[in-house]
Design brief:
The chain has 203 residues and is mainly alpha-helical. The protein is 91% helix and 0% strand. The chain has three helices and no strands.
Length: 203
């Protein structure tokens, strides 16, 4: 459809060129120019109709890919920034939790040490109290044993001195009590005399 008018125009141009008698040696013949123009127009039409859309499609596809890559890169960068912020928040939370656990452990350790000290003090007090009770019991037992031994010895001596038997329990108890009282009085007098003597020496 396009070539028929072009051929007609070219034919008329050739006829008009043949009518011109003068020819410029620097220019080619008119029919060469006309056929060259026809070929250029045909090539241009084919290029515009078939090749140019393909080139445009390729360029559009590459532009879409580049734009998609840029959007993907921006999305990846935003996601990386979000992940980094989340990581920093988790790190800060972990540090806060570690500090809290450390303080709690320190406080609990102090409470445990205080409790252990209290238990040790209570155990030591119980041990001292038990030892004091045991010592008091042993002292009382020793006093009873000593009293019995002294009583038996005093009874024997008194029997020899008095010349009669002191087998009566009441009499024996009275003799022992009197003997012990005399011993205590003698010990008290000796102690006061020693304190008086030492006070005189100091003066």
């Amino acid at each position: 459809m396009i070539t028929a008018p072009l051929v007609a125009a070219a034919h008329s141009a050739v006829v008009a060129a043949e009518e011109v008698e003068e020819v410029n040696p620097l220019l080619p013949h008119t029919y060469d120019i006309v056929w060259s123009l026809v070929i250029v127009v045909i090539i241009a039409v084919v290029f515009i109709k078939y090749a140019l859309p393909k080139f445009q499609a390729v360029l559009d596809e590459r532009a879409e890919k580049i734009e998609g890559g840029l959007q993907h890169a921006e999305a990846a960068q935003a996601e990386a920034a979000e992940l980094r912020a989340e990581y920093e928040q988790q790190l800060a939370d972990a540090r806060t939790e570690a500090a809290r656990i450390k303080e709690a452990a320190r406080a609990e350790g102090g409470a445990i040490v205080t409790e252990l000290k209290a238990k040790a003090a209570a155990e030591a007090a119980r041990t001292v109290e038990t030892a004091q009770r045991q010592i008091e019991a042993e002292r009382q037992q020793a006093a009873v044993s000593l009293r019995n031994d002294v009583g038996a010895l005093a009874t024997e001596l008194a029997s020899k001195i008095v010349g009669e038997s002191l087998e009566d329990t009441a009499r024996q108890s009275r003799v022992v009590d009197r003997f012990l009282e005399e011993l205590e009085a003698s010990a008290t007098a000796t102690a006061s005399a020693s304190s008086t003597t030492s006070a005189g020496k100091e003066n």
